[in-house]
């Protein structure tokens, strides 16, 4: 019989964000919120000194107004491109980006009791192998994706708990970019790409994050296509955690429980099935192409859904010389041919769009 943990931990905590009713508070629960509140207060002061409402700043960045509200309240981690753009728009002279770099946004957060054992093994692992059935791996989730998942689980209706769980999950990811970070190899079922967690905007950002993280030297992301059918050996989350001493533990989940399997023979048998799955799955390059294809499909959903008005170029006219029009939305700028409003739409990130605008204004483009 395989050796499993004496006390099974509640299942689906990695994939669906379930949480135990009882949880242990961090020894310093205000550490991260205080740092975030300081940054948010500085951002708010700079914005108000310019007489700029949150909505106006949101349009210029661009992002949603609630996103800025959460950052100013200290409940959302700002990303670097957001800080760089806000610093420039508010003429902060580097004050915001300097403050952002000084804050430890990934201060260690104590995990709930039911998750502490897994988090401990994961934090020390030199290699992590995962298979995810219908959701993106917790180590690869964006804040928006994680918040949508956790906010619909047992923490629903408790914003404070949701934010605590989101911070805890994002903190786990920091080790991927730290020196000596583990090798992470994740096989996602293709279903994970098509589950609209949080809506098309959140999924668009999430799939873009997968493409970016997949370029890291210690991260391998593969997609198990629908065509594999019965050749997918697992019907639930499995995670292999290999410690520096070479010992591998297997974590798996049932509907309402999670178990560690440590018997070497059983782990070896499951590892063999996982290795065969990796061989059958799309290659990392093919997987990136599949992710990119699904993401492009989401773009049309975002463009159709956006309430932002389309603005036509000032060089366009009514004599057949129409050219392009632009819409500001989250997560970027949408551009289409004004003569073909039902045609394809191009999407540019805020940084790429601003670089283009700056180049035009300074005459670097002829």
Chart the SSEs and their pairings.
Elements: H1 30-49, H2 54-60, H3 65-73, H4 80-89, H5 95-102, H6 113-124, E1 127-132, H7 143-150, H8 159-177, E2 183-189, H9 191-194, H10 200-213, E3 219-224, E4 238-242, E5 248-253, E6 258-261, H11 264-280, H12 284-305, E7 311-312, E8 324-328, E9 333-337, E10 346-348, H13 350-361
Parallel strand pairs: 1-2, 2-3
Antiparallel strand pairs: 1-4, 4-5, 5-6, 7-8, 8-9, 9-10
Q: Which descriptors apply to this entry?
A:
4-stranded antiparallel beta sheet, globular, alpha+beta, 366 residues, single chain, 6-stranded mixed beta sheet
Describe the structure.
This protein has 366 residues and is α+β, with helices and mostly antiparallel strands. Helices cover 44% and strands 13% of the residues. The chain has helices spanning 30-49, 54-60, 65-73, 80-89, 95-102, 113-124, 143-150, 159-177, 191-194, 200-213, 264-280, 284-305, 350-361, and strands spanning 127-132, 183-189, 219-224, 238-242, 248-253, 258-261, 311-312, 324-328, 333-337, 346-348. A 6-stranded mixed beta sheet has the order 3-2-1-4-5-6, with helices on both faces. Strand 5 (248-253) and strand 6 form a beta hairpin. Helix 4 (80-89) runs antiparallel to helix 5. The radius of gyration is 23 Å and the shape is globular. 35% of the residues are buried. Mean pLDDT is 81; it is low at 1-32.
């Amino acid at each position: 019989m395989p050796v499993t943990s004496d006390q099974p931990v509640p299942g689906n905590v990695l994939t669906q964000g379930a949480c135990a009713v009882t949880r242990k508070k961090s020894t310093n629960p205000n550490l991260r919120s205080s740092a975030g509140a300081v940054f948010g207060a500085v951002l708010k002061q700079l914005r108000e000194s310019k007489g700029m409402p949150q909505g106006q700043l949101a349009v210029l960045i661009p992002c949603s107004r609630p996103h800025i509200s959460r950052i100013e309240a200290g409940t959302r981690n700002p990303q670097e491109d957001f800080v760089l753009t806000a610093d420039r728009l508010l003429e902060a002279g580097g004050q915001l980006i300097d403050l952002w770099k000084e804050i430890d946004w990934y201060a260690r957060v104590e995990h709930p009791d039911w998750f502490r054992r897994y988090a401990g093994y994961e934090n020390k692992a030199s290699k992590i192998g995962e298979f995810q059935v219908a959701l993106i791996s917790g180590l690869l989730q964006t804040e928006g994706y994680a918040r949508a998942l956790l906010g619909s689980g047992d923490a629903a209706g408790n914003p404070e708990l949701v934010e605590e769980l989101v911070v805890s999950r994002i903190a786990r990811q920091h080790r991927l970019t730290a020196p000596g970070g583990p090798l992470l190899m994740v096989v996602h079922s293709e279903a994970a790409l098509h589950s609209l967690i949080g809506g098309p905007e959140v999924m668009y950002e999430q799939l873009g994050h997968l493409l970016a993280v997949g370029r890291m030297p210690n991260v391998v992301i593969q997609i198990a296509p629908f065509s594999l059918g019965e050749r997918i050996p697992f019907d639930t989350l499995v995670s292999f955690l290999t410690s520096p001493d070479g010992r591998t533990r297997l974590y798996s989940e049932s509907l309402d429980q999670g178990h560690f399997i440590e018997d070497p023979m059983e782990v070896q048998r499951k590892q063999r099935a996982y290795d065969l799955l990796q061989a059958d799955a799309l290659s990392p390059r093919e997987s990136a192409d599949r992710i990119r294809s699904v993401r492009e499909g989401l773009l049309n959903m975002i463009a159709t859904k956006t309430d932002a008005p389309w603005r036509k170029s000032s060089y366009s006219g009514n004599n057949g010389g129409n050219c392009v029009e632009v819409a500001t939305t989250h997560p970027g700028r949408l551009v289409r041919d004004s003569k073909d409003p039902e045609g394809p739409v191009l999407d540019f990130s805020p940084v790429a769009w601003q670089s283009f605008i700056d180049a035009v204004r300074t005459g670097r483009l002829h």
